[in-house]
Amino acid sequence: MHFKIASVLTIISFVSIPFSGFSQQLTRFYEHAKVGYKDNQNQIIVNPTYDAGSDFVDGVALVILDRKRGFINAEGKEVIPLQFDDAGMFVNGLASVKYANKYGYINLAGKWEIQPMFENSFSFSEGLARVQMHGKWGFINNHGEIVIPCQFDNAFDFSQGLTVVQEKGKFHYINQKGLSNFDKQFDMATSFTKEKTALVAIGEKQFLINQSGKIIKKIEVVVDEEEMEREEAQKEREREQRKNKQ
User: Fold this and answer.
1) In Å, how far from its chain's centre is CA 182?
2) Which residue, among 139, 215, 158, has the nearest Cα to 182 in the 3D structure?
3) Residue 154: CB atoms within 10 Å
4) 175 part of a folded domain
5) pLDDT(195) > 60
6) What pLDDT does residue 22 have?
7) Which residue in 20, 129, 203, 210 is deepest, having the highest Cβ count within 10 Å?
8) What are phi and psi of 202, to 5 degrees?
9) What pLDDT band is residue 224 in, cutting at 50, 70 and 90?
10) In angstroms, rounded to a whole number, what is the distance separating the alpha carbons of residues 190 and 172?
11) Separation of alpha carbons 27 and 32, rounded Å
12) Considering just the CA atoms, what is the radius of gyration of the chain in Å?
């Protein structure tokens, strides 16, 4: 039996955010598949030369050109050079960036606050950031200290004081001390929402739970028969292709 599992996508929200030190807001625009920025009088401040760009957060915007990432200020100056292979938005003055095949964190001056030593890393959430070392995930604080060891097969950002981690194919929740909040494991689990509920699955059954792990609602699973037929047709095509190659 097939069913749809609601997934949580981490999306960079390009919502205009006011910043101090500049009296007007810049807005992204697109021209010939390039990104530039205009002020609130619709005057072009940054010519459309970038492949992609974010809105401004903490007075800077993340921009991409020729697969390199850096940051510009509200005057269009590249205050942090486009030298990174990957970069995230600033959160509380720190941004995760990839340099020389390692991830670390820079401050708004472009200086290293946490040296690049990780295989992967993400933005801070509720004071902690998830990082990967030796193929395993854990969490650091804003001083770069590992506060939850890198021991999980997968991990997600903290939300409402808890995070989802994966070990041996099962998901469970831990707090910011790395301790399990309740002794339950799931086949699928999502982050807690502001209502302090999370969607989990046990086998093919889905439930809403609270932060004590108590089931508060069973979710009816909708079977999409058309999607099942498409999946089966695709599997059949793949089997035929493999057979023809033999």
Assistant:
1) 25
2) 215
3) 13
4) yes
5) yes
6) 43
7) 129
8) -125, 110
9) low
10) 10
11) 17
12) 22
Q: What is the pLDDT of residues 71-111, one digit of tens each?
A: 999 999 999 999 999 999 999 999 999 999 999 999 999 99
Is the CB of residue 170 less than 8 Å from the CB of residue 186? yes
Sign of the dihedral through C-alpha 178, 183, 186, 189: negative
Q: Report the Cα 99 to chain-centroid distance in Å.
A: 18
181 with 165: CB under 8 angstroms? no
Q: Are 81 and 72 in contact (CB under 8 A)?
A: no
- pLDDT (tens digit per residue) in 119-162: 999 999 999 999 999 999 999 999 999 999 999 999 999 999 99
Contact 198, 5 (CB under 8 A): no
Domain hosting 201: range is 171-246
Q: Are residues 103 and 42 in the same domain?
A: no
Provide the terminal-to-terminal Cα distance of the chain, rounded to the nearest Å: 31
